[in-house]
Structures are given as C-alpha cells and as structure tokens.
Amino acid sequence: MTEIKKDPGYRRIATEEAWAPPELITEFRRVLEKKLINDPAFESLWGYYGGHPSERAQNLLRRIQRIDESRIADMDATGIDMQLLLLTAPGVQVLERDTAVSMAKFSNDVVAEAVRKHPTRLAALAAVAPQAPAEAAKELERAVKTLGLKGAVINSHTRGEFLDDPKFWDIFAAAEALDVPVYIHPSGPPPQMAQPFLERGLEGAIFGFGVEVALHVLRIIVSGAFDRFPKLKIVIGHTGEGLPFWLYRIDYMHAASVRSQRYAHMKPLRKKPSDYIRENLYITNSGVAWEPSIMFCHKVLGPDHVLYAMDYPYQFEPQEVAIADALPMSDIDKKKFFQLNAEKLFKL
Ligand code: 1DF
Ligand code: MN
Questions:
Q1: What are the residue boundaries of the structural domains of the chain, listed by start?
Q2: Which parts of the chain register pLDDT below 70?
Q3: Whose C-alpha lies nearest to ligand 1, atom 11?
Q4: Any residues with Cβ below 6 Å from ligand 1, and which?
Q5: Is CATH 3.30.450.20 the right assignment for the domain spanning 13-345?
Q6: What is the pLDDT of residues 29-58, one digit of tens each?
Q7: What is the residue with the minimal CA distance to atom 9 of ligand 1?
C-alpha cells in the first residue's frame, strides 16, 4: 500500500462522503421491486448496488451503511481526519412525498447521533425532500439549528424536476438565511434524458452523473436564482462536473443569446454566468485524483473555492490521497484545499 504522510501540515477533510441507513436501502429495494417510479438510471444504479454479488457491490453495501468505528478505521488507514457525510444518491428523492419527508428527518437524526459520538471525525449535511419544498426548508432549519448539521445535500433532479423551478425556492431561501451551502450531488439522468446514456452504460458516475449536474447548475444560473439569492452557496463535486472548462463559451453564448433576443425565456442576468460560478459555486475533487483537472479548477475558481473530497466508499483508493498531497500548490493553498475552505464553508 502507498505510504500516506502523517502530519502533512493540514487536516484532511473529505467533503463528499456517502452513507445510507439500512432503512433507506430497504426503501430503494421496495421502490425497485414494486416499480413505484419510472427512473431507469435509478434502476440501473440500485439494481446493481442493492444486490449484485460482485465484490464491488458487496463492499459498497457493507461500508455505506456504517457510520461507526469501522468507518473511522477506514479513515485512519487512509489519513482522513474528518468526513462530511452526505445521504447517498438518489437519497429520499425517489420516494413518495410523505415517505421522503419522514425518511429525511429519520436520516438526519441518525447521522446527527453518529456525529455526536465522533465530533472530531464526522460532520454531516442534512437530507431534505424537495418533493415538499416548505417542509424541506423547515427540516433544513431544524437540522442546522437543533442537530448541528452543516448544510443540505440534494441528489440533483427530483423525479425529473430541477431546482431552478421557483416552486423549490423555499429551500434556497432557507439555505441563504441560515448561511449554509447546498451540495448538489449527482444522480442518474432523469428518464427524459437517460435513454441515449443507458444504451451504452454511460448513465452513471462515468458520465451521466456529471452531465446531469452540470445541466442542473446551468439551469439554476440562467434562471436568475442567484440574482434572487445572491448569498446562496452551491457545492458540486467531481472537479465541477466539467463546468469550469466551459466558462468562456457559456459567457459568450449567453450574452449573444440575450442580446439577440433569440429566447423569450432567457432573461438578462446581473452578472456573467462565470461570475456566479466563481462567486456562488464551490467545487470538490470527489472521484477525481488528477492534477490537470484539479489545477485547472484551482486556476479558474481560485484557491478559496476548491475543496478536497474522496467519495468514500464509492471510490476508496488510498493512493489517491497521496496524489492529492502531491498537488503543485503553495503550502497555504494546499491547506485551504484540504482543510481551511471546508472549515469555513461548512463551519466545522
Ligand atoms: C457512484 C459514484 C455512486 C458516486 C454514487 O452514489 C456516487 C458510482 C450513488 O460509482 O456508482 O456518489 N460519485 O459521487 O462519484
Ligand atoms: Mn459521490
């Protein structure tokens, strides 16, 4: 095994680490068995992790349900000082409204208890059910104020609907008022988008996840949500799901589209799309232990908006910690990347 440096001069805080209570896995299986939802990408994802005999699926299923000493042991073995826990995709968002609301509360209570037992090693984001926006906003407030959770995780689209729809904006209003971020974590593309991905097995983390989140964030930007909620902070993983690479073209084409009045529904924004990406967006390197991609994001978004993440247990590769340690950043920027940005953004 690769040597992982002890005392590198920063705490390694991993910010997109997945967990799921057994009760949620049971719900996933029920939704699949009873065909309660039309979502082929979800069927592919949890049809696999929920029961495939392969070593990858079995290890995943075991590890993801544990938020106890065995998880801490995996963290110790890989030099991770703290994990920020996110309810795994698609979270409660594939459940019926009332079940989703109660499963979100239940999960938040369970994860808060684990954090209480290991306050220096674990922190968590709150699950919310966008199916019920007003309840979601209330649950976020409860989770932050009474449970000490650090923001919200939303596993991207909810039954094919995206957060740029103002019907969801109670959630943004609550996050802004509480001064906590919303982490938009991927799930598979919704049915109206999934077919061409499914035909080649590309709907999951290999590509479909990233395309769907990038689309989701861009929808939020052009909707004007950040003009309505200028202090709203959104976090996305996987080195920004490709978005930083597109900024020049998005700015140019957005300005051209608005100026030419090509789209009646594309309204002028107060700022350029890239301004919102630099100011309102934070990105993590979850699942991407690759210098060119991380350093590109670092250059485009600046040293204060790029954070470390591992994506445990989906991507539990000890040598990737050594790769991140070796990134060509100044000492202070590396400390920001691994520790200080996470402490500030999530108030750890
Ligand atoms: C996978 C990857 C699954 C990530 C995930 O949650 C996930 C995967 C269901 O490899 O199937 O969070 N990821 O973030 O890269
Ligand atoms: Mn993930």
A1: 13-345
A2: 1
A3: 205
A4: 18, 45, 88-89, 186, 204-205, 237, 286-287, 311, 314
A5: no
A6: 999 999 999 999 999 999 999 999 999 999
A7: 89
